[in-house]
Amino acid sequence: MLPNASEGIEQGTAAEDVCTTPVEPYQNVPPIPISVVEADVEGSGSGDQTCVEEGIYGEGGILGDIEEHHIFRSKKELMTCLSITAMTKKFRYKVFKSKPSFIVVRCVHTSCSWRVRAKKLNKHTCPTDFKPVRRRQATSWVVGECVKRKLINPGRVYRPRDVMDDMKRKFGVDISYSVAWRGRECAYDNLWLGTPEQSYKLLPGYLHMLMATNLGSVVNLEVSDGNKFQYLFIAFAASIHGFSYCRPVISIDATHLKGKYRGVLFTAVCHDANQQIFPLAFGVGDSENDASWSWFLGRVKSVFGVNPALVIASDRHRSINNAVQEVFPQAFHGICMYHLLNNLKTKFWNKTKELEQHYIRTAKTYNLQDFHVLFYTLCSAVPGVKEYLKAVGLDRWTRSHAPSRRYNIMTTNISESLNAVLVKVREFPITAFVNEIRLLCQKWFHERRTKAAGCTTMMSKDVEMKLEERKDRAQAMGVICADQYTFDVVDGDRNYCVDIALWTCTCRKFQLDQLPCDHVLAVVRKTPNQAYNLCSLYYTREFWHETYRGVISPIPHISSWTIPQQISEFEL
């Protein structure tokens, strides 16, 4: 029911027709606003008083009970409400009078005085040129109420310009960009746990419930003097358990938050056995600086420990480099080759075509001899790049020179992908933002646990596909046996030496990725199951399923929270 319907239609003056039999409630019902002007009992006859009371004041109508001064969007909506109320309360009515401008209905019981009379709303009598395109009623909170349903899906990108377009299309109202922006913020406040200030006050209680429902999770909230928010760290218990079954290569990155108080989101992720994103930890801080990165990586280290084979992959941000050296001095710190390529394009802007042609091949090659040939070609095509790349460190951006095993992970694409997934929710107030992260992880863990449980192959689905592709290429290769473990494999015009016992091939892909290369598969193609024995456990179905064994549990509605007094009294 609308307190203010759109423009009505003037009351008609035609003669009234009387309908002596019930009519279909949807017959000849134009979509016009209509107002109930009377819902009353006339006369003092011995009517069925129960029927009258239930028809007017009962609890039945799905669209609400019909009373005086109620306004409906159309005659059709009124008739729908009447029909549903009659069906619910077990009585019948008939249309006594019906014209385009009004309608009267009565109970079919001859002694019952129940009656509803409704008429169309009058049109405005103000002149057309008095009705401005910009209307003072289109305030930010009204706009927020109009568009908040558009924001129920957190992944939807809904910009202020979209708000302006929708208000123009639906209501014919022009609103300013600032009103559209504030209206969208009002909608967010209603949908996502209140204003930014209220959200910070809710945060301690929410974090308590997160730890209570996800036992074993690690949450650190650090505040400065005056209880001002400074840092937040979250690692779910399911992620802590699952990391032991993932390759020890952690990709770290940071991205800016877009809410009222800004800040930065820190993430640490890795690959699961199926080459998908596995979230490890999340952090929130003021900005990307040495102190915030050291604090975040310090918490990562305390939760996940230090693997002797650990590799950290990131972009070339100076604060990341300083923090990794401070917190993980024993770990190898590799650079994302695509971030470095972008740096090269900026510095050698007139040689971008040559860089794209030669740099990627140089960075990806496994073989040292191939690297020297490719690197020489790159340096010849782009003068000055040799000194620049050597200053960065050949071991940090190439496969062939890396002192630790990076497997096939040469970029931070998984971090960038996670940032892209969270791009919309980064506008939310802090508690709503953290809750969206939990919901995302909860969804991923469930879907991937189900997918891993349904896997019937020895390896994960992605790895099985990769092995099949390599087996097809291996069919054309010749194999010459030297002894039980060593073989000479002829691949086109080149020979490669394979040692099954040492897990090595002179192409170096086998030992660096811990997955059989084409040449190894050529050796074992007559004994297919042996290929699985030459794969790292990190790629197996068992490790894939074990990675997602943990469950990220939901958090009940705020009305059901049980918060200790010291936490409920703590305010950020």
In short:
With 572 residues, this protein is an alpha+beta fold.
Extended strand count: 16
The rounded Rg comes to: 35 Å
What class do helices, strands and sheet pairing give?
alpha+beta
What distance lies between the first and last C-alpha atoms, to the nearest angstrom?
Answer: 41 Å
Determine the fraction of residues in helical runs and give it as a percent range.
40-55%
**Count the helices. How many?**
22
Q: DSSP strand (E) fraction?
A: 15-25%
Record the strand order, biggest sheet: 6-7-10-9-8-11-12
Sheet having the most strands: 7 strands, mixed
pLDDT averaged over residues:
83
Give the CA-based shape: elongated
Low-pLDDT regions: 1-32, 40-63
Would you write up a description of this structure?
The protein has 572 residues and is an alpha+beta fold. Helix content is 41%, strand content 17%. The chain has helices at residues 49-57, 75-89, 140-147, 160-171, 177-191, 196-213, 237-242, 290-304, 318-327, 337-347, 352-364, 368-381, 385-392, 394-397, 413-421, 430-453, 461-474, 509-513, 518-523, 528-533, 541-547, 565-568; strands at residues 34-41, 71-72, 93-99, 102-107, 114-120, 218-224, 228-235, 249-256, 264-271, 277-285, 311-314, 332-335, 478-481, 486-491, 494-499, 504-505. The strands form three sheets. Strands 6-7-10-9-8-11-12 form a seven-stranded mixed sheet, sandwiched between helices. It has a five-stranded antiparallel sheet with strand order 2-1-5-4-3. It has a four-stranded antiparallel sheet with strand order 13-14-15-16. A hairpin with a 2-residue loop joins strand 3 (93-99) and strand 4. Helix 8 packs across helix 9 (318-327) and helix 10 packs antiparallel against helix 11. The longest helix is centred in the last third of the chain and has 24 residues, at 430-453. It starts with 33 loop residues before the first strand and ends with a helix. Mean pLDDT is 83; it is low at 1-32 and 40-63.
